[in-house]
Design goal:
Elements (H helix, E strand, L loop, with lengths): L3 E19 L4 E10 L6 E9 L5 E3 L8 E3 L4 E6 L5 E9 H11 L8 E13 L4 E2 L4 E11 L4
Parallel strand pairs: 3-7
Antiparallel strand pairs: 1-2, 1-8, 2-3, 4-5, 6-7, 6-10, 8-9, 8-10
Amino acid sequence: MREWLPTETINMTVQSSEVNLSGFDATPCLNVICNLTSIARGQVALKVRPVCADETTRKDVDEDSDAQEPWNQLGGRIEIRVDRAIMDAEINVPADAFDRLCQNINLARTRLGTVTLHLSEKLSVSVEGDLKIEGDLALEITDLSWTLPLG
């Protein structure tokens, strides 16, 4: 019988990264592909976007509406699908943290950087690293940490 352990984190190593600049205003998005290390198989496609302090709300798509919705809130979300070996994650970080990350993530390294995502709910992972989920999941990312080698 397998032993399942609860975890609120997903650990991974950075495999590749690139900055995508979209639109006429060149809105940046850091796209990072990571290999899972705390789970036996799979990858995470991570999108990191900067949040500016003055960009907190925007009008809904319906221009006639007076409603406001959150625009650039800190935090993120990860989608885990039963039928795919790749998880999709999106995170909004402060603009200064985004700039520091972009400056440091792609420097020539002798070893890979790591990322840890902290989740809003626990996942069940076996001692062997197998992930146990009943169906597709969408979880909030409550925090994250990066370890980037200096040389």
